UniProtKB/TrEMBL annotation:
The chain crosses the membrane at residues 14-35, 104-126, 147-167, 179-199, 240-266, 286-312. Keywords: Cell membrane, Membrane, Transmembrane, Transmembrane helix, Transport. This is ABC transporter permease. InterPro entries: BPD_transp_1_N (IPR045621), MetI-like (IPR000515), MetI-like_sf (IPR035906). Its main location: membrane.
Amino acid sequence: MGGATVLKLIAQRIALGVLLLLAVSVLIFAGTQILPGDVAQSILGQAATPQALENLRRELGLNDPAYIRYFRWLFGILQGDLGTALSNNRDIASALSGRLANTLFLAACAAVVSVPLAILLGLLAVRYRNGIIDKAISGFALASTSLPEFFIGYLLILVFAVKLQWFPASSTVYDSMGFLQRLQAVVLPASALTLVVLAHMMRMTRAAVLNVMQSAYIETAELKGLGPLKIIRRHAFPNAIAPIINVVMLNLAFLVVGVVVVEVIFVYPGMGQYLVDHVSKRDVPVVQAVGLIFAAVYITLNMVADIAAILANPRLRHPK
């Protein structure tokens, strides 16, 4: 009975994620279609003749009704065809493959540092709650949350690239670079992303564990003589894992889709930089493709968080 309930909930989350992604694809397509200006005019320039503009519109299918263009675009994506960039006539999928890998590498580096550190700081804040350590960690979290990511990025460049000259100001990576060289190149942008997401995960970890610490079985464990660290490690943290997983997944999603500002600041050749470059050129197919990939990553990670929370809930796995 419990297994059937869990499978049903997981199937519902997956179906909801697919429907949500479909709805987002409609919004992305509609949003790019109502942008001011003429795509054909932006490609050929102001000196283009009316006949040349009409020929290009016919070639690109711009004269077709919007719903036909949407389904043509959607079916192409389902077949792995993201379209062709209008600005340089390159295949978008091939251009994005390397960019996506760079963005995922940057996000992974930030996640490897931020997730364990946030959980550790959250548990330390619980262990020494209302003490100097708790107040210091909370103060750091408040300061980190208050600073926008572009300010953190420029501050890191000023201190570690300009003053100390430990790391390069621009994070240039290329295919032939070794792993250690890539790590050195992404230290500053990864640090900026870590500082952006660290505070939120730490505060949510602290809140989730403190909420569990109010339970009756925690008081029983204290009466049995268990130490604070053992209580947190063996009883409080495992029972607070579901909300912690949710907030970690949300921040992992941000590390992938929220990198636009950081990539622009550090001139990092990832998805965000690619998107900004082509927005300025009004390259609609690129904007649609990148927007849909960002949406798919965000929805997928949220769906994984929901499924993990379901699997971590003992009341669903072992119903009475």
